[in-house]
């Protein structure tokens, strides 16, 4: 019945950052930021989803930090970022813009990866000057731009008003999740992960999600319920790759396909058979590989570093 905020060992245990900082957003919200990896390496920025934290990206951070500068931050109210009364897509965009401005040098380009609400953050922030300046390429994992509640398949019944009503009540519940028990793991696995997810994956996600305060979970559920970011998708003019699990009950593949069709420069859509909503945890090697490939392709310094390493190993 542990209340541990994340697993303490194994591949999903968060690595110790090289350094940490607190960034202040436009409305005064304080955002916790972690930086991993070599100081002058190609940059990667990671934005997690609803009810998660930087710990969600543990597998990606562990692998990428060997030769990338990995910047991960807690969305407001999540992880070590204090709760703030401002809920909405514009505050999410404010936070991302503040993180980019605080951690990247003027003109420095990075790959930005967003999972679920992190992907929605990118859509909301797409027109912002900091995103235009710093985003070399984007990876969108398990996300959507509108109509999330009506399309979710968490409730196993035919689509329609009754299912939408029930889904809204479940996702918007104010009830505390309580300790991580075997039953809690089974419920979380059903709602957010594929049926073949390994127990260590389920446990890692359960501890992260259960650590999110119920008031924060409820507040952001209302934002997701009313989400309408189709306009932001069209503003993501840099190369964007999309990843989704075929068994995703929260943002089913219909959303990924709509994103791929609407993006000005979609460079790939990957549907992962049998995987659920937590793709960075369920398919860590694939998601890490996508981020690494985007950096190697679209960040000039990454291409140069890769060439130097190839020469050194020859």
UniProtKB/TrEMBL annotation:
Domain of life of the native organism: Bacteria
Keywords, alphabetical: Hydrolase
Segments forming domain AB hydrolase-1: 44-287
Record InterPro entries: AB_hydrolase (IPR050471), AB_hydrolase_1 (IPR000073), AB_hydrolase_fold (IPR029058)
Pfam families xrefs: Abhydrolase_6
Gene3D superfamilies: alpha/beta hydrolase
Entry annotated with the keyword Hydrolase: yes
Keyword Magnesium: no
GO molecular function: hydrolase activity
This protein's name: Alpha/beta fold hydrolase
Species, as recorded: Streptomyces tendae
């Amino acid at each position: 019945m542990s209340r541990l905020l994340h697993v303490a060992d194994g591949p999903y245990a968060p690595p110790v950052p090289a350094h940490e900082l607190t960034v202040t957003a436009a409305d005064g919200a304080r955002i916790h930021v972690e930086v991993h990896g070599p100081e002058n390496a190609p940059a990667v920025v990671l934005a997690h989803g609803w009810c998660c934290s930087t710990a969600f990206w543990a597998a990606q951070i562990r692998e990428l930090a060997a030769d990338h500068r990995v910047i991960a931050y807690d969305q407001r109210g999540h992880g070590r970022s204090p709760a703030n009364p401002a809920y909405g897509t514009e505050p999410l965009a404010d936070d991302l813009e503040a993180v980019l401005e605080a951690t990247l040098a003027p003109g420095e380009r990075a790959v930005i990866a967003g999972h679920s609400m992190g992907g929605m953050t990118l859509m909301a922030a797409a027109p912002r000057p900091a995103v235009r300046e710093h985003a070399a390429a984007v990876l969108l994992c398990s996300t959507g731009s509108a109509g999330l509640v009506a399309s979710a398949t968490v409730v196993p019944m035919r689509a329609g008003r009754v299912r939408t009503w029930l889904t809204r009540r479940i996702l918007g519940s104010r009830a505390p999740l309580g300790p991580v028990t075997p039953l809690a793991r089974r419920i979380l696995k059903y709602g957010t992960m594929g049926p073949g997810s390994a127990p260590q994956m389920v446990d890692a996600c359960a501890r992260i999600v259960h650590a999110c305060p119920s008031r924060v979970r409820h507040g952001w559920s209302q934002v997701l319920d009313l989400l309408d970011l189709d306009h932001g998708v069209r503003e993501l003019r840099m190369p964007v790759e999309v990843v989704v699990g075929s068994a995703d009950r929260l943002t089913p593949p219909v959303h990924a396909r709509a994103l791929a069709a609407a993006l000005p420069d979609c460079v790939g859509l990957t549907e992962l058979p049998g995987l659920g909503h937590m793709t960075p945890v369920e398919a860590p090697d694939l998601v890490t590989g996508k981020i690494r490939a985007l950096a190697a392709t679209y960040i000039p310094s990454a291409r140069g570093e890769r060439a130097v390493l190839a020469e050194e190993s020859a």
